[in-house]
């Protein structure tokens, strides 16, 4: 089984970290292929960058020439999952949805701890669109930019753990979801601070993708995710 794990930003060190985290939980026989878009922002923290990333991720997967069995979109609250489902028959798993859906198996309510406050509405909208918002106790911002997670990992852990503790204490969350692909690898340290299950979206997405492939499931093409209709595209792809 081969799973493509596509970073939504163009920072290769984040792609590498996401790939390592994905590989750490992959079953024997599962090959994880991390991919970085060839264009886009170094970090995705708003609607413009998210829509740009959606196009970049789709084009990155379209350019991949080897066979694959599933796709993971490794961006929290980002756009584009539906477009990937139109383009490909294989299962497409978004890390936002994978973490939230998995959280509901291990607790009644969950909270998401993300990076900047401006990303909170994007995550709330993605959870609502996916039908996963009813049991979301809160989406909290740590105040850290995505690239801050690499620059000062210790400060990142402290800020994320603080918001996780508040989510458990004040919002009555029973599970914490780490709301950024760049937070891969922080789960154990947040568990130690909060005492509740903590979900990393990348690892949850790998487990979900593997399960879908083993069940022999593909993306339904009868209506919502039918392939794009053939038509003339003006100046696309750009030169």
**What structural category characterises the helix and strand content?**
alpha/beta
Query: Strand arrangement, largest sheet?
Result: 2-1-3-4
Shape: globular
| Unreliable stretches | none
Helix content: 40-55%
What is the name of the CATH architecture of the largest domain?
3-Layer(aba) Sandwich
Count of DSSP-assigned helices = 9
Rg, alpha carbons: 17 Å
Mean pLDDT: 93
Strand content: 15-25%
Order of helices and strands: EHEHEHEHEHEHHEHEH
CATH class of the largest domain: Alpha Beta
Per the CATH scheme, the topology name of the largest domain is: Rossmann fold
Number of E-state strands? 8
What does this structure look like?
The protein is of the alpha/beta class and 239 residues long. It folds into two domains: 106 residues, 3-Layer(aba) Sandwich (Rossmann fold), CATH 3.40.50.12500; 106 residues, 3-Layer(aba) Sandwich (Rossmann fold). Helices cover 42% and strands 15% of the residues. It has nine helices and eight strands. The strands form two sheets. A four-stranded parallel sheet has the order 2-1-3-4, with helices on both faces. A four-stranded parallel sheet has the order 6-5-7-8, with helices on both faces. The two termini are 34 Å apart. Belongs to the HyuE racemase family. This is Hydantoin racemase.
């Amino acid at each position: 089984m081969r799973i493509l794990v596509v970073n939504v930003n163009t920072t290769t060190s984040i792609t590498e970290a996401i790939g390592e985290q994905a590989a750490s939980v992959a079953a024997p026989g599962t090959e994880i292929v991390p991919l970085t878009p060839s264009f886009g922002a170094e970090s995705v923290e708003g609607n413009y960058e998210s829509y740009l990333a959606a196009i970049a991720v789709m084009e990155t997967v379209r350019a991949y020439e080897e066979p694959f069995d599933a796709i993971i979109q490794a961006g929290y609250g980002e756009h584009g999952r539906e477009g990937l489902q139109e383009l490909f028959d294989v299962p497409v798993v978004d890390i936002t949805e994978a973490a939230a859906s998995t959280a509901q198996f291990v607790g009644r309510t969950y909270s998401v701890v993300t990076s900047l406050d401006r990303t909170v509405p994007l995550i709330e909208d993605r959870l609502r669109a996916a039908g996963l918002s009813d049991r979301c106790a809160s989406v909290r911002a740590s105040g850290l930019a995505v690239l801050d997670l690499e620059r000062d990992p210790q400060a990142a852990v402290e800020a994320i753990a603080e918001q996780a503790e508040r989510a458990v204490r004040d919002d009555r969350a029973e599970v914490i979801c780490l709301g950024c692909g760049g937070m891969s690898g922080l789960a154990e340290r947040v568990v130690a601070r909060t005492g509740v299950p903590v979900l990393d979206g990348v690892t949850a997405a790998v487990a979900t993708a593997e399960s879908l492939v083993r069940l022999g499931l593909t993306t339904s093409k009868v209506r919502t995710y039918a392939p794009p209709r053939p038509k003339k595209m003006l100046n696309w792809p750009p030169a």
